[in-house]
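Listing S7. Sequence submitted for prediction.
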Amino acid sequence: MADTREFDLVLFGATGFVGKLTAQYLAGAAPESARIALAGRSLDKLTAVRDGLGPKAANWGLVVADSTDRTALDELAARTKVVVTTVGPYLRYGMPLVAACAANGTHYADLTGEPLFIREAIDAHHEQAAATGAKIVNSCGYDSIPSDLSVYRLYRRTVEDNTGELVDTTLVASLKGGVSGGTIDSGRAMMEAVAADPAKGAVLAHPYSLSPDKSMDPDVGRQSDQALSRASAIDPSLDGWVSTFVMAAHNTKIVRRTNGLLGWVYGKNFRYREVMSAGRSRVAPLVAAGVAGGIVVGLTAGALLSRASAGRKLLDRVLPKPGTGPDEKARTSGWFSMKTFAHTTSGAKYVATFAGTGDPGYQATAVLLGESGLCLAFDTDKQPELAGVLTPAAAMGDALTDRLRAAGMTITVERA
């Protein structure tokens, strides 16, 4: 991409809750010379956000654009090298911006955890983005960078050690943090889409629904995101119990798509799943069972309620609102630690650790998204040459790993 554009990076949705956090992060982390702009629907609100960021952001640009105005989005995309967007649910509001970036050869990063949105983006815009050189990178927050980069780092280590391809690989998530209103609203958007078109349910259910080539999908038997077992069944070093990880259904699809985008380098017998630690106390089995059952019941109830207007109104009243989040004390007290246990075809064993501080869905996500945008803007010579609708690891690989380590996150791989 020629360096003739007005901005290096535009943050779209800068007046929302996560948008403001990302703007604050960029104000501290971006190079002094970075040409950054804030974008959204209200000039007054954008001005207020910029004024609250301190002197470093005083000269940042302001761009007024609505997520439904394709002309305005085309103009926005043409002015910048990278667009970072927090405007969701992406299934409702995100596709016009993807289309604008794909058409204008503009790199893009979002926070989506919506497989339906990504599948639609792939089908509609992957080929054009590949032709224009645009990297359309989905899921650049806690959903799904820790999962995606952990497995990518494991793969890179097995290549260095010449220990064969990855086979059974399991991520165990431990965290302290809340579920954002935006995440819940994204889930509702997908439920409503499936209620309107039941055929879309297959995208949510199939482990390879984001595959770049259906004919190349591995045949490794059933892979389920539901879990309830002793942790020691994953690795003898673990104690306690594990249960279903609510983000597994999306993260695992991203990891499998990366494998396909990179030419199935993880291996054609690569099996991947994610679980969540339920602790080691006497009540841990009950907690694990309750989480696993609660997720199934909650998703089923939400799907049923989404089919009727009365049910949707009820959900409006009882669920957290999008654009809301915890206070600063709660955000800074959060943390996450993802440990991924892998086996290879030669019998070698590895464990990858990806850990960070701050509420995963807010504080840590602002770092992950902010660094993704900066990576796309400034590290193009260090990235894979792939373009199109991509995953974080396939788009940025080692360059993003280096940035996140420099930002204070722990990303390691050890041979067990």
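Caption to Listing S7: primary sequence and predicted structure tokens for the chain studied. Residues 295-306 have pLDDT under 50 and may be disordered. The longest strand covers residues 166-176.
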